[in-house]
Design goal:
mainly alpha
Length: 107
Amino acid sequence: MRALCSTHLIGEAIVICLGALVAMSLTDISTGVLWSVAGPAAVLCVLLCGRLSAPWAVSAGWALQVALIAAGFVVPMMFVVGILFAAIWYACVRVGRTIDAAKAARG
């Protein structure tokens, strides 16, 4: 599960940064405010990659997915992007757990 979810979170960090760049040009929100929200969110995605074995990590990943969907209130296209990333997160968690169970059964 760690490999799939880590790949997803790195991609999400990139999308968060790109979404902030788009928001800078499409909204009246100041650059400082945008990066004070997007920067820590992207860093949190990267840091969460290393903590995916913790029991709370999947829940934190879901919280990031909700935050990405909520970014649609600033840049409306982020609703679509956020929903797609949430669906991919679900698939990564589900398939990752299936793979982990199969590996454990094999020995």
